[in-house]
Amino acid sequence: MHKKNLVLSGVNVNQASRVFIMLHGRGATANDIVGIGGFLNTENAHIIAPQATNNTWYPYSFLAPLQQNEPWLSSALKLLEEILLELFDNGFVSRQIFVIGFSQGACLTLEFATQNAMHFGGIIAFTGGLIGDSLDISKYKGNFENTKIFIGNSDKDPHVPLVRSQQSKSILATMGADVTLKIYPNMPHIINQDEIEWVNNNIL
Q: Model pTM greater than 0.85?
């Protein structure tokens, strides 16, 4: 199960006006995703990057039957809920909280936000989609109240099929989100400069 192993960066939480929860991809580290934060507008932000046990949030593809990825997926979601509730206890409100992830971390970002929809500061998924072999909308709760959500993906990503990002956008929109899906022809499995600039200019 995932332990609460956090890498902290940015301004001190007591001086921060907003918080970024940043989720790394499969095989990567919390320090890797914090490094990506160096390209984002992190002014006045406290950064929290949890480290997944064995560098992976769940063992199989995000498109596998949900049970195959248990108990790791539920453990990851519970860890994020714990972080969120601690931020609330420290006086932050949801619109001050941004959740940002890449690849496996982007899928986890979208899954967590959609199971706990509220007025977040922003949700950013660099190459991601909602998790499961099929999407059961009954598990998604709340209303995003016009939260801005960004999803970026290639038209032929080897890990995240574009159709899943498109399906995810539709579900998020029905839950009150202001969703932008940007599609990049032939983009490899990376975060590109256009994504960084769009997110900085429109969400952060």
A: yes
